[in-house]
Structures are given as C-alpha cells and as structure tokens.
Amino acid sequence: MPSDKSAGESAGSNVQPNLEQLVWHVVSDETRGLTKQGLLYGLTSEVDVGVRHKICDTISEVANNTPIANWPELLPALSDCARSQNADMRASAYRVFASVPELLAIQPADQVVIAFNGAFQDSSAAVRLASLQAAVHYLLAASGNAGGSGVAAPPVQLMQIVPHMLSVLKLLLQEQNETGLVEAFSSLIELAEDYPKYFRNVLAGLVEFCTAVAKDDMLENSTRQTSLELLVTLAEVAPGMVRRLPAFCESAVPVSLKMLSELRDDEDDQEWYNTDTLEVDDNDENYVFGEQVMDRLACSIGGKQLLPVAFKYIPGMLASANWKERHAALMAVSAIGEGCYKVMRNELKNVLDMILPFFDDPHPRVRYATCNVIGQMSTDFQPAIQQRFHEVILTKLIPTMDSDNYPRVQAHAAAAMVNFSEEASKAVIEPYLNDLFERLLRLLNSNKRYVQEQAITTIATVADSAQDRFREYYSRIMPLLLNVLENAKEREHRLLRGKTIECATFVALAVGKETFSADVGRFVSIMQSIQQSVTEPDDPQASYLLAAWARLCKILGDDFIPLMPVVMPPLLRSAALQPDFAVLDADEDAEAQYSAEDGWEFASIGGQQIGIKTSILEEKCVAVEMLICYARELPAGFAPYAKQVLDLALTLLKFYFHDGVRSAAATAIPAVLSAIKSVADSSNTQLMAELKSYWDVSFQKFLSVIASEADDAYTMQLFNSLAEAIEAMGPGSLSAEQLDRFTQTITAQMTKYMDRMKERRALRANGQLCDEDDEEALIEDEAVEGATIDEVSKALHAIFKTHGESYLPYFDKFLPIVLSFLNDSAASGDHASRQWALCVFDDLIEFTGPASSAYAPQFFDTMIRSIVDPNSHEIRQAAAYGIGVAAQFGGEMYADAVAAAVPNLVSVIKSEDARSDDNVYATENAVAALAKILKFNSAKVPEPHQVLREWFYALPILYEEDEAPFVYSYLLEILGSNAQALLSLEPPGGYAGCKNGLEKCVNALTEALATELLPQILNNSIVSSLKGLMANVSEAEQASLWQTIPIETQRILKTKGYF
Fold first, then answer.
1. How far is residue 155's CA from residue 195's CA, in Å, rounded to a whole number?
2. Residues 717-745, buried b or exposed e (16+ Cβ, 10 A)?
3. pLDDT of 930-977, one tens digit each?
C-alpha cells in the first residue's frame, strides 16, 4: 500500500519504511528458521508464476537482512534451481541472484562466469533475461567489492561475460520479445552508468545493434528509445571511449535526426496552432526524445566530432519538401548549440544565414521551430550573438509576432525575444523598442491567455534590458498591467496575474522609484489583496508574490519597512515548508496517484518507489533567497525577524532534499548577521550580547557541517559563507578556542585534499588510467577541489584580515600543510595547489606585516622564483601580488627580498605576450608590485630610476580592479611632486609604443578614465591632472596628443563628460 509522509514525520533523510526489518529482527530464531524453510519449500514447489515471483522477492528481502553465513541452505537451493529442468525454476534462481548479487560475488569468479554464459543461451527467454539482469547486478557488486570506481579497468575475467550478455539482446529481438528487450536494455543502462568500461571491447557491435533497433519504425517507440538510451548513456559517462569509435556518431546522429522528424500527423492540425491551452510535449514521443538525444550527445561528445556528422544531414533536411524534416533540422540545431559551442561560435554567421530564411517558411510549424532555435542560440551564444547579429535576427523575429492566425507561433516568437533580451544591452535593444513594444501591446489583446502571459513576460524582460529607456512606455503599459490585476480575478487567471505582478515590478525597477511613485499605493494595495486570496498550496501566484515583494523592496528602500509585517509571515511560512513524500511498491503506478504536473518526482530505491513533491522545494528555495534579499537591502526592517530566520537557516544547512535550499541557507547566515550588526549599537549591551550568541552558534554550526560534508560543491559554499560571516562580524570576533577549532577544520579539509592529490598522482604515475575518460574524470575532480580550496583560502583570508597577528600561534599548526602544498605541488606540477599556497602567504604578509618575516625563509625565495613560473599565469599573478604586499606592509625586513624580486617583475612586464588574455592579470600585478616597491621599500633597489622607467612604460592597468586605484594614485603623486622627472623618461629598449613621456602619460591616464575600475574621486583627480598637462603645451601639440588616443577611448571620455 502507498504511504504518504511529510519531512516532519520521517526520521532524518531515510524515508524508506523499515517495519519489515524490525519485525524480522525481533522474532525468535526458531520463527526465522521456520520462515526460511517455508520460503525455500515454496521456491521449489509453487507452480503459479506470480506467486513464485513474490516468494523470490521475499527470499531476497530476507537474504538482504540476514548474514550469508546464517542461511547456508540458500545458495545450494538456488544452485539446484538454476540447474533444474523446469525453466520457471531456473528463472526464479536468477531473479533472486539479481536482488542478492553478494551470493555470487563471494564465489570463484571463473565458476560464476561459466554459469552465466550457459544461462545466456538457455532455451527459455525468461531465463535468459533473468540471467542477464542477475549478471548486471553481479558485475556491479563484484566491481564495487573490488574497490572499483569506474576509473580503473574492470577485471579481465569479468569482462568476458559482457559479449555473451549481448547475445541475449539478439535472441530477444529475433523472438520479437520487445518487453524483454526493453528490460534487458534497461539493465545494461544501469551497468553503463556505473562501469562503462565493461562495454569497451564490444562497443562497435553494440552501436551497430542498438542503432538498427532504434531506426526500425516497425518496433514500439519504447523499444527504439531504450536502445538509443543505452548508447547515449555510454556517451555521457565515457565520452573518450565513444570518441575513439568514429562509427558512433556516424550511426547515432542520423537515427536521432530520423526520430526528430517523426511527428504525428495530428501535430499539423489547426487545433495545435490555435489551442486554448499549452500542453507540455509528451516525452514519450519520438521527436521529443530525438531532440533530447541530440542535446545530450552534443554535450558529452562535443562539436568536434558531432557537428560535421550532423551537418552532413541538416542542410538536406532543410531543403526537403517535407515540413517535418525541415522542422527536425531546425530543432536539431537548437539542441546541439550548447554542446557544440566551441566549434559553432566561429560559424555563427553561416549558421544564421542557413536558419533565418525559415522565418518566412510557408509552414507555421517550421516558423515555430525557427523561433525555437533563435531563442536557444540567443542563450547558448550570448552575448556575441546579440552584439554582432541583432539586426538580422530582430528584423525577422519581431515581425513573426504578427502571425495572428497562429497564436502558438506568436507566443513562441515572444518567448524567443525573452532569450534574446536577457543578455542584450540597452544599446542593442534600444533601436527596436518602438516596433517591439507595439507588437507586444497587440499580443496583450489576444484572445489566448497563454499569448497574453507570454507577452507580459517578454515586456518584463525587455524592460529589464532597456532600463531607463523604458520610461517613455511606462504610461501606456502600467495602467494595462494594473487593470489586469484588478479585473482578471477568475481561478484560471491565476498564472496571468502572477506574470503580471512580475512584469509590473520589473518595469518599476527599470524606470525607477520617481516614475513609479504615482502608482505605488495602488499597486501595493493590489498585491496585499492578492496575497490574502492565496489559500491553496499550489497557487502559482505565491511564488510570483515572493519575488515581487523583494523587487519592490529594492525600489522603495526604507519606504518598504511598513510593509514588512505584511510580507514576512507568508515568506517565513514558505521558507519553513516541509516536502511531501510517498513510498510505493515497485509495481504500483506512481503517475496515476501522484501526477508529475503537481510536482511529484519518483526514484527507485531498495525495490520501492520513493517520491518527493519537488514543487514545494522550489517554493522553499525561492523563499530563502528572498530572505537574503531583505536582509541585505533592508537591514533595519529585517532585524525583528533575524533570530527566526537565523534559526531556520542553521537548520536548513543539512536539508539534503534540495541543494539550492542548502546553498541559500548558507548564504543567508552572513546576511542575517550583517543585518543585526548594522542596527546594533555598542551601547545596547543586550543586543550586542545576542549578536555574539548568534555568531557563536552559527560559527559552531558551520564547522560541524563542514566536518561531515562529503559534497565538495556544497563545502565550497559553506566556506564562502563562513568567510563572509567572519568579515561581517569583524576584528576580534572569535575566541582563542574558536580560532583553534577553525584551524583544526581547515587542516582536516586540506589534509584530505592533499591525500587525494597524491592518489591521483599515483594513478597517473603507475599507468592505472585506461583512457582519456579516466583523465577527464580526474581533471573534473581537480577542478571541483580547486574551487573548494579557493574558498578555504577566502575563509583563511577573512581570519587573517580580522585577527591579524593574534592568529599566528594557530597558523603555526597549519603551516606544514601550506608548505606541503607549496613544495610538493611544485615537484608534481600541480599548479592550482601551489597557487593556493602562495595566496595563503600573500595574506600572511598583508595582514601580519613585519611579523610575517619570521616565516619568510620558508617561502619567500619560492615566491620570487614563481614570478616567472613558465607553466602557470595564476602562479605568476599570486607571486607578483605577494611581492607587492611585502613591499607595502612587510617593512624594512623585506627590503632586500623585494629588491631581489625586481628583475623578475621587470621580466614579466616586458615579455612579448604580457598583455595576452592569459597573462594580463599577472602582468598588471607585477606593475602594481613595482609601484609598491618604488613607493614603500626602494632602499635596497639598485638604479630605482631605471625601474621607474620600466614601470611607467608598462602602464596602463585596465583589468586588475584591486590594484588600479593604488597604481594611478601613485602616478598622480609623482606628477604632483616631480612631473618633469617622469615626463622626461625616454622609452626603454625594445618598447614599441608612445614616443615620449608626455604621450605615454596622456595615454595611460585616458585609458584609465575609460575603464570602470576607479572610484569617481580618483577619476576627477586624473581629469584635473590631464588638463594641467595639456595646459602646458601648445594647441597644435594638444591636438596631436588627442590623436594618439584610440577612437573608442575618445568616444567614452566624451560620453562621460570628461572632455
């Protein structure tokens, strides 16, 4: 029987009922013995197949809850069944083996292989299928027991089973047993997901067989799709293995394109174009599945192999007289863009030239597909496609909204406009606003509600892109939106109202508080009324209200505070929602009882179906994200709710049902603490004490969750939020005991990563990697770990920043780990780990100053050498930054050391590729380091005048926002104290740029003004300095200097009103 549970009723995250286990373990040994005897008797005597299956399933359950040694009769009984003359008996044995593979995993592998190979050739289809399923679970169990991870090659002896397993497929096809064939494919998919290398030696034959099944339109759709699903699964989990077989793409792509073109005839009915309600495409349809396959193949295999094969067929399909083929070709281009990005981005013009004419295709379904591909490409290739091709796209897309006879095409054109607008700048969208707005207003008057809904969503997105340029349309659109909210009150209009609320707040954000002020009262009144009307848990207006109130908060600022008592109670209820669960037997119809449309998703676990209502989780996640918004935007109004929110967020740190909720909860904690601190007055001792208590609990919770967390991606978020919280609480916020616990936590974390790094090094050194898939898997692991290590570094940075020298006694305990990463990584070539170590020492110097010199003998020589590291620009950047902070904060004890670094810094800024995309940040950090040495610690620098010349001609700084203000302040300081000495500097040898110091200075300063890196007060000083320089030369020389400034820089300076 199905059972419903809420998260509050379940114990932890284990929602699987365990009543049977409890009963089994509490009955007497005699009862258990009699039960086992009865089950084995039923296994050999029961003649009804259905009852026999239930007996087998019960035997499996009992066996999985009983040590193998405590049921010695089981394996001999199953072996006798497997050798029985009765096919049903033989099938029953393998049914149990499939559920209890450990029975076979402890047997000699050669004997098991022989037994399976014989069963695969059994005269009974049921035995062959059951033995295949048992073999799959045996391989999974045996590989897992051997410590297999999918990286190392499977045991050779077990590999011998797979070719014989595949023979079962061919026999099932010959017998036209499609039900069995689908079950067999499904079992192989399960094996492929965890251990794809079992298929390495049979891949060519498997591809041939699966594609033959997939393209046979005499077979059932489920059979064809499951056969192709096996190949796609292999491509996703072992792309390297698949890429080495050229026939894979050559076979799978045309089959997928064929499926894409298999639309039903009724898909061309007028009813489809003029439907009153939009239905989601049925995933069981071949054309939907074919599109998904093309997307998944592109993302896994990549464009280098897939694109040439796909475009062998797509042009011919586009030229076909059959609209279904043209439709399929366009949908294929839409599907493969993301995965083929690296190749297609260089061919955008050619692809668009091929696609855009189909906006004028005579068939509306083809025009619909054209809207789809343009919308998807606008997302996949943003922002380049918006910047380079806006004219050719929008002059075709916008008129497509005029398809009055085909409302579905109109709506899809408006939807594609959303994709395009999301990444379009105001400058790109502005020329088209009039035409676009007029058409969207007409769509608002459509008699199809989904067209109206889409028009409203598009208006919201366009307004968000157009920003203040949308003000001229405000007086026409806002009254319409308010009218919809006040009059469309029927139940079927709930989604329309939700989208209208969203649109109104996006428009208000775009035009600003002043323009919106006349309608604020009316709009707020409507929002309150709608919020009171939301009483059903599935009301779509609820989620729109949550986000709309948050946007309104950003618009109104402190004027929103009186609305907090209205907004917060329902928001807190949503944030505290608990998901609903359902537990069903394996053979029950989940969809019949728990509809996917209602947000239910099921997974098979332990022979049962475990369902969770994910729509509630999404609402919960949005609610927590909105709480963050209020904490950040309106701390004074948020403070009364801070403790309640903090308690909830701390609980949700271990909410394992939804990653987004956990991450949002972690992000909320520093935001809440900051909100409390912003209103806390040092004279209010009670509030300060409460804040300290909240912080102590939060800090402890962060460390405990980090210590038990296995997911590196979430660990990364935890450290990020911890760093923000530490900085928010400020200097001296942690006790000696807390600092020690923090050090223990990061030591354990970094020790774990060091061990993993050594394991990967050993795998590579010992030749245990089989192919590029193994290497790709390790690279992916390294990328995730590297990102997590960066966040550990941020947390340590926050500790140094807020506690300075007082942290050094605890840092001493952590120092051996940092030195290991610095030195061992250098030996192994692990650049990311060495960069991390250098960043730690950068922070050590910056925040402990001269005290850090006690540690310098252990790392500073390595830092100097790392400035010119030949293999990693990230290492060069970290090292250069470290030299700069040593000069600025290290004091006289670093004078000799920073002077020794000067030649390497000059080498970096003078290299031929100093300004390449990879190297520019290292270069600009080196420029900044030289400036700091010259200003703070030049006593031991030989020929500082020459160093000044090299530094001056290495300007400008255009990307490094942290260093740019210091560098330009230093430049202005020199110009103010000794301008002539600087301007008289001749270009250094090998310099190919400005011809003299004045020209260089003018160019460096104007380039700085054109960036967004500097605070306005510094920009104003630069403008004054430039005007002073220009005033000292003739008008002719001024004109000559102006001509040396790049045209785009001149335009930006004039736009900003500087000149």
1. 11
2. bbbbbbbbbbbbbeeebbeeebbebbbeb
3. 999 999 988 899 999 999 999 999 999 999 999 999 999 999 999 999
